[in-house]
Design a protein that fits this description.
25% of the residues lie in helices and 14% in strands. By secondary structure, it is of the alpha/beta class. The strands form four sheets. A ten-stranded mixed beta sheet has the order 9-8-5-4-10-1-11-12-2-13, with helices on both faces. A four-stranded antiparallel beta sheet has the order 15-16-17-18, covered by helices on one side. Strand 16 and strand 17 form a beta hairpin. Keywords: Calcium, Glycoprotein, Hydrolase, Metal-binding.
Length: 574
């Protein structure tokens, strides 16, 4: 009986989203796409450069905002989005580091060498030092630049730190996830350290303060101490709502009737912590005189982690996958400077687009940063014009486990379909290799989840393949694979992957270095390599060979061990 009821719910849910009414059998034609990403657009006629507040949340699922029909209440986000422009064709990356690197550089992962996995705490790796970052361009335009929150773009050298990459001030964590109160992070058994930094120093005195509140308070202090007559850029990268699921107990009370414990804690973190923090930041903008000349951008960094409270329903997949549930994000822009407010935009926007868009708003110079993959999408957002973007390279990852059933033959002799890759061109989306966990996972509000809900949407066939094609405009939930019906489209998109792959640089994914252990840094995570240390792996993407076999120290042997272990274990960890 329960199964029938759930099946009925599934059908009603799909109808409520208008899915069955969409004409998915009439896909648009694949057209030639612009290869020059720097389409020019005149900056808006503002009286002075606007203040820019960029808010990035961590692991917030597509379904986990009020205006997407969620069971989680987000009154502040709902109001800001309703009064601004909702971006409902907005794309991010499936995991942390890739989204952040593309935001900061305006370039795809294949053009920074960060196309595989994330930057891990013990890796001698960081955002390439030759990349001119978004805050650096804003500094050139006369902005004061500040970062609050999660960095996750590497820190093995001091040159990699936020304060060396364009930010005047920094308060936050350098690694991927920390305890919300103690700021401890463990990168394996016995490899634990403190990770909260003020500038380039360890902020031991801030321990015990809940990070979401601490970060919002810091933004208010920055605004209070700055003059609204001078342009300011604040990048607020909340740790919320990444695991561990921690929230002050009094905030969980609102969701006490929610049966699933993980969902209950997650909901409290979204509503009464993160949403409230955004409210306080908006209030501070108004109190200190910034609001009337401000642009607030809100974005998630990747899809929700479905077994840690998040939900991407009704999209397919989850964090770490190239299905829509992993790469379609929550995004909106709120600003008094928008010409056409209170609307929903279906213009195609990608996280790389913020770089040229914000630099253009700031009246900055983009002529000395050629080859950006992002577009200036402000006319599409503010005036409702057509987006200059017609395609998105989701990624090409040559190191990810190759699909068992992929081959060059399946790729028309032009592309090995065992390689994990994904691209969207206009209405069409192509995936090759192993795109990641592919189920549709309903909101986990029931006490016994996954249980019968798991069986409801469990994918039981179609796994013995390595190519998928969807008309993503007509079929946003990726239920109808058209790769067999439209081989012509498959071939065209494979050729686009080939074109992109010709421009890719070697993967930067070095072995972990034992010198990174926090015990060697006073118990805290932080830089461990000197300026004189050379990164031999950068040129080839491969571990360096020993140049002097007679002089091997203990730490060299450890490095060799970790390199060998790296190839077998690291590529599967997210």
């Amino acid at each position: 009986m329960a199964v029938y009821a759930l099946t009925g719910f599934s059908l009603v849910s799909l109808l409520s989203f208008g899915y069955l009414s969409w004409d998915w059998m009439k896909p648009g034609l694949v057209a030639d796409v612009a290869t020059d990403p720097m389409e020019k657009s005149l900056p808006p006629a503002f009286t002075r450069p606007p203040h820019i507040i960029f808010i990035l949340t961590d692991d917030q699922g597509y379904h986990d905002v009020g205006y997407h029909g969620s069971d989680i209440q987000t009154p502040t986000l709902d109001r800001l989005a309703a009064e601004g422009v909702k971006l409902e064709n907005y794309y991010i990356q499936p995991i942390c580091t890739p989204s952040r690197s593309q935001l900061i550089t305006g370039r795809y992962q294949i053009h920074t060498g960060l196309q595989h996995s994330i930057i891990r705490p013990r890796q001698p790796n960081c955002l390439p030092l030759d990349q001119v970052t978004l805050p650096q361009k804003l500094q050139e335009a006369g902005y004061s630049t500040h970062m609050v929150g999660k960095w996750h773009l590497g820190f093995y050298k001091k040159e990699c730190l936020p304060t060396r990459r364009g930010f005047d001030t920094f308060l936050g964590s350098l690694t991927g996830n920390v305890d919300y109160y103690t700021y401890d992070n463990c990168d394996g058994p016995g490899v634990c350290g403190y990770d909260l930094h003020e500038g380039e120093d360890v902020a031991w005195d801030q321990s015990g303060k809940y990070s979401t509140f601490l970060y919002a308070q810091r933004v208010s202090k920055i605004l209070a101490s700055h003059s609204p007559k001078e342009p300011i850029f604040i990048y607020v990268a909340f740790q919320a709502v990444h695991t561990p699921l921690q929230s002050p107990k009094e905030y969980i009370y609102r969701y006490r009737s929610m049966g699933n414990v993980a969902r209950r804690k997650y909901a409290a973190m979204v509503t009464t912590c993160m949403d409230e923090a955004v409210k306080n930041i908006t209030w501070a903008l108004k109190k200190y005189g910034y609001y009337d000349n401000s642009v607030i951008v809100f974005s998630t960094d990747n899809g929700g982690q479905t077994f840690s409270g998040g939900s991407n329903w009704p999209l397919r997949g989850r964090k770490g996958t190239y299905w829509e549930g992993g790469v379609r994000g929550i995004g909106f822009v709120h600003s008094p400077l928008i010409k056409r407010k209170r609307r929903t935009s279906w213009a195609l926007v990608h996280i790389t687009d913020w770089y040229p868009t914000l630099v253009t708003l700031a009246r900055g110079n983009l002529s000395n940063v050629p080859g950006l993959d992002g577009y200036n999408v402000w006319p599409a957002i503010s005036e409702g014009k057509e987006s200059p973007r017609t395609e998105i390279l989701h990624n090409i990852d040559p190191l990810y486990n190759h699909a068992k059933y992929g081959s060059l033959e399946d790729g028309f002799g032009i592309w090995n379909t065992a390689v994990q890759a994904s691209i969207r061109v206009r209405d069409w989306k192509l995936l090759t290799g192993d795109p990641g966990y592919s189920d549709w996972i309903p909101p986990q509000t029931l006490t016994n989840f996954p249980g019968s809900w798991w069986n409801l949407e469990r994918l039981t066939d179609g796994l013995r393949k390595s190519v998928w094609l969807f008309n993503i405009t007509a079929d946003p939930y990726e239920r109808y694979d058209l790769s067999d019906q439209r081989p012509d489209v498959v071939r065209t998109l494979l050729m686009r992957l080939v074109d992109y792959n010709r421009t890719a640089i070697p993967v930067r994914y070095p072995a972990e270095n034992p010198r990174a252990h926090p015990d060697f840094n006073g118990g805290a995570w932080g830089p461990w390599a000197s300026e004189d240390d050379t990164d031999e792996w950068e040129d080839t993407g491969e571990p360096p060979k020993s140049r002097n076999k007679k002089k091997k120290c203990k730490i060299c042997k450890l490095r060799s061990f970790f390199r060998k272990l790296n190839t077998r274990l690291m590529s599967n960890r997210i």
